[in-house]
Amino acid sequence: MKKKTYATRVYHYLNRVYFDDVLPPVKFKFVNDATFGGMAVSDGETFFHIIFSTAFHYDYVEIMLHEMCHIFQFVTGGKDQHGKTFKEIALDISQRSGYYIQKHQEMEWR
Question: Which residue from 61, 66, 71, 77 lies 20 to 30 Å from 9 (Cα-Cα)?
Answer without folding.
Answer: 77
